[in-house]
Amino acid sequence: MLEMLKKLLASAVAWGVLILIIAGVITLLSAAGGAVMKIFGFHADSFSSIFLFFLLAGIIGFLGEALAKAFPAVLHEKELVTDVGAKIIFVTLDTIFSMLSFLAADTLLDSVMASDLALAVLSLILAILSLKDFSGKL
User: How far apart are CA 104 and CA 79, in angstroms?
Assistant: First the structure.
């Protein structure tokens, strides 16, 4: 019984640490993304609104991100596109899906107002930054 309780406690601590790491990454992304977007007309009531904006956009855009990675990889595997073609398709799809998830989060949150230009620029920057991760899977 005591051994089972130790395993349960260890599991709870591991999940807690994982959640804190994920929250830290989202916090850093929120700070950097909010700073970039502020240049293009982004406004939020507080930092917690920015954090919630990026968290919600990440949840909404999860499926789109998976599709943006899988579709060009399959095309490349079937030899229908070259490496460069797969990268272009990835950046295009990733930008579109990120933009749509940011637009959905912007619509759902009243405490955040973002211009379309700010969302497009951030989506493109994030797509280009994630290109290195995608290129390693080709």
Answer: 34
